[in-house]
Amino acid sequence: MTSILKSNKLQNVCYEIRGPVPERARQMEEEGQRIIKLNIGNLAPFGFDAPEEVVQDVIRNLPNAAGYVDSKGLFQARKAIMHYTQAKNIADVTVDDIYIGNGASELIVMAMQGLLNDGDEVLVPMPDYPLWTAAVSLAGGTPRHYLCDEANEWYPSLDDIRSKITDKTKAIVIINPNNPTGALYPDSLLKDIIQIAREHSLIIYADEIYDKVLYDGAEHTSIASLANDILFVTFNGLSKNYRACGFRSGWMFVSGNKKIAKDYIEGLNILATMRLCANVPAQYAIQTALGGYQSINDLVKPTGRLAKQRDLAYQLLTAIPGVSCVKPRAALYMFPKLDPAIYPISDDQQFILELLQEEKVLLVQGTGFNWQQPDHFRVVFLPNLDDLTDAIARIARFLENYRKR
Ligand code: PLP
């Protein structure tokens, strides 16, 4: 019998966050070993509960949630999202401009499927949240990675962005606050990116799913609030700000120069209707989440659990010889660098696998985020202070042995 092959469309599609190393971790757990997981931004298993009122709203509305709803989502939920866009100073977003999906992930894939023809190019950050690269590739597009500069707070390099634009470039993706670097972009930088998009007629896709996970009193500006003359598609959801990753509830909205995008918007509508609608019970959570008590603020204030874990992880990691790191100002991640002169790593997936096997700590290698050199890894600082201390001590021990090899 001939073997059954996956589609050619998947040729350049990969997603290492759930790749072979976490699969090995799963096997080790099945064998009874305890793994400390610093590999995935999934809050609930680490005791970060979704707000109680949000959970109760889903439970209360479950009996009403058995039918399909509008393909773009429940009206009351989209109305709440509309108010949120107003609070973020984004002009002229109507209920009709908002699409609710099974997490932002579904909508990211949808937005790329609706836009790209074979060979079209999209500027994607490097490092990136790899779903973006995968979604562009799956849609037949070519991801062109622009550099985020570690020497400059991991901010996007405008020169590099400009150098990667061709006559096939359709759009630029901005992940702000950033996964995996924890960077938060200043307004001046956002305006400079808008200017580039303006000059080259690019759509701006803004992934802002961590826009409330901000430390040190920082504030977040939605890039879509800074211009009306280009098209923006902005993504957000309940997964991170409201610790409800498993609800699979996210949204996107179009704003800015919608007039030039009528055909594209029609395409998005077709794609939204094809899958009928997003999971309905979770849509009932949106209004209460956005309008309710913003308990994330208690977690990110200096004495809050997330802020304390960020501070400890940063302090312990940067104390390891040959490890440097830009301190994250937002989100749940750090992207430390291993000095190649001290740690001559040629295959960072192998490095991460050996760490897992020797020390039972699970990380994701930097190349999993489309970083080109094997000299970074991502740390998720969700485990509690004791587990973080333990995990980073194990990483330090592993690195010390690695140096002696
Ligand atoms: N965008 C970024 C930057 C993320 O880090 C994630 C999840 O980790 C997502 C999107 C996907 O979010 P959702 O759970 O809404 O699908």
TrEMBL record:
Catalytic activities: L-alanine + 2-oxoglutarate = pyruvate + L-glutamate
Enzyme nomenclature, EC number: 2.6.1.2
Record-level Gene Ontology MF annotations: L-alanine:2-oxoglutarate aminotransferase activity; pyridoxal phosphate binding
InterPro entries: Ala_Aminotransferase (IPR051926), Aminotransferase_I/II_large (IPR004839), PyrdxlP-dep_Trfase (IPR015424), PyrdxlP-dep_Trfase_major (IPR015421), PyrdxlP-dep_Trfase_small (IPR015422)
One Pfam match: Aminotran_1_2
Subunit structure: Homodimer.
Residue stretches making up the Aminotransferase class I/classII large domain: 35-389
Function: Involved in the biosynthesis of alanine. Catalyzes the transamination of pyruvate by glutamate, leading to the formation of L-alanine and 2-oxoglutarate. Is also able to catalyze the reverse reaction.
Pathway involvement of the protein, from the record: Amino-acid biosynthesis; L-alanine biosynthesis
Keyword rRNA-binding on entry: no
Protein name: Glutamate-pyruvate aminotransferase AlaA
Family: Belongs to the class-I pyridoxal-phosphate-dependent aminotransferase family.
Alphabetical keyword list: Aminotransferase, Pyridoxal phosphate, Transferase
Cofactor: pyridoxal 5'-phosphate
Presence of the UniProt keyword Transcription regulation in the record: no
